[in-house]
């Protein structure tokens, strides 16, 4: 429970995963828009990229299409791209947050650390919005889902 | 769910997080909380009001000791919200894993072709 409080207060989600692929290949799957759009987002989601300019200060605008037909408009701004180790992106559309993706070489494998830091004010905005509803009923499903996942 | 804004504000203070941490181990009277957190009674009372308004604790009205008790519901709600973002990444990672398998197979094919 103490960790939960700390995590909430830091407003940060940190996840890591080891992929069975060399780092150059994993990094490429993030920087090549044709590859990125294939896997970005939860199961059942597809993406349309409107603009993808991967350089510091460059923007990435895209629509995520949910399995129920709902469209989610997103705008990101690239902050830092250090090949093949690190990508930092600001999520401009609410809720505002910053993503830091770290790529670590483990022989023929690659470990990705994904850090998502929310702005406090953004968190509040989001909490008051409709996006919150439904999460409660999803909690059990999510808990089951996450329990099944092996996060390395 | 509207309580969540209050939950966040309530958590944004080390004394209040200290109170919640202490209450995880069971209910406690105000004077004991003040002692363990090394804070004056009146200062603690103000923090307890914030926690109570946010629904994070309840205080018994009847008992003379008025013990404080932790309520986890707001924390569960907040965690559900964070969870939706964790899910985004977990599922994207699953899909990336599949994608990388495809890419590796493709590269192997290319190497084979060039080899011939």
Commentary on this structure:
The complex is a heterodimer of chains A (152) and B (116). With 152 residues, chain A is an alpha+beta fold. In chain A, 32% of the residues lie in helices and 39% in strands. Chain A is built from 5 helices and 7 strands; from the N terminus they run αβααββββββαα. Chain A has helices at residues 2-10, 23-31, 33-39, 120-128, 135-148, and strands at 12-19, 46-52, 59-65, 71-82, 86-91, 97-106, 109-118. In chain A, strands 1-7-6-5-4-3-2 form a 7-stranded antiparallel β-sheet. In chain A, helix 2 (23-31) crosses helix 3 (33-39). The longest helix of chain A has 14 residues, at 135-148. Chain A starts with a helix and ends with a helix. Chain B is mainly α and 116 residues long. Chain B is 72% helix and 5% strand. Chain B has 5 helices and 2 strands, in the order ααααββα. Chain B has helices at 3-11, 14-23, 30-37, 41-53, 73-115; strands at residues 57-59, 68-70. Chain B has a two-stranded antiparallel sheet with strand order 1-2. In chain B, strand 1 (57-59) and strand 2 (68-70) form a beta hairpin. Chain B is rod-shaped and about 85 Å long. At the A-B interface, helix 1, strand 1, helix 2, helix 3 and strand 7 of A face helix 1, helix 2 and helix 5 of B.
What keyword list fits this structure?
heterodimer; A: 152 residues; alpha+beta; 7-stranded antiparallel sheet; 5 helices; 39% strand; disordered C terminus; B: 116 residues; mainly alpha; two-stranded antiparallel sheet; 72% helix
State the gist of this model.
Chain A has 152 residues and is an alpha+beta fold. Chain A contains 5 helices and 7 strands; from the N terminus they run αβααββββββαα. Chain A has helices at residues 2-10, 23-31, 33-39, 120-128, 135-148; strands at residues 12-19, 46-52, 59-65, 71-82, 86-91, 97-106, 109-118.
């Amino acid at each position: 429970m103490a960790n939960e409080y700390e995590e909430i207060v830091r407003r940060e989600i940190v996840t890591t995963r080891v992929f069975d692929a060399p780092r150059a290949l994993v990094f490429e799957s993030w920087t090549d828009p044709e590859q990125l759009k294939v896997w970005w987002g939860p199961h059942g989601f597809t993406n349309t990229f409107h603009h993808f300019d991967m350089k510091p200060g460059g923007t990435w605008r895209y629509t995520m299409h949910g399995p129920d037909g709902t469209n989610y408009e997103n705008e990101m701004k690239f902050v830092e791209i250090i090949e093949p180790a690190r990508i930092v992106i600001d999520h401009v559309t609410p809720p505002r947050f910053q993503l830091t993706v770290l790529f670590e070489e483990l022989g023929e494998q690659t470990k990705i650390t994904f850090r998502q830091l929310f702005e406090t004010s953004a968190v509040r905005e989001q909490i008051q919005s409709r996006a919150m509803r439904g999460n409660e009923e999803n909690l059990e499903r999510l808990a089951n889902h996450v329990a099944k996942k092996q996060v390395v | 769910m509207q309580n969540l804004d209050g939950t966040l504000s309530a958590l944004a203070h080390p004394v209040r997080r200290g109170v919640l941490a202490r209450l995880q181990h069971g209910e406690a009277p105000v004077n004991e909380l003040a002692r363990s957190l090394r804070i004056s009674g009146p200062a603690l009372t103000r923090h307890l009001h914030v926690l109570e308004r946010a629904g994070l604790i309840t205080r018994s009205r009847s008992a003379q000791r008025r013990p404080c008790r932790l309520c986890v519901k707001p924390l569960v709600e907040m965690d559900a919200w964070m969870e939706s973002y964790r899910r985004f990444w977990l599922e994207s990672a699953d899909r990336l894993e599949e994608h990388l398998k495809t890419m590796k197979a493709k590269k192997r094919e290319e190497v084979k072709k060039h080899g011939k």
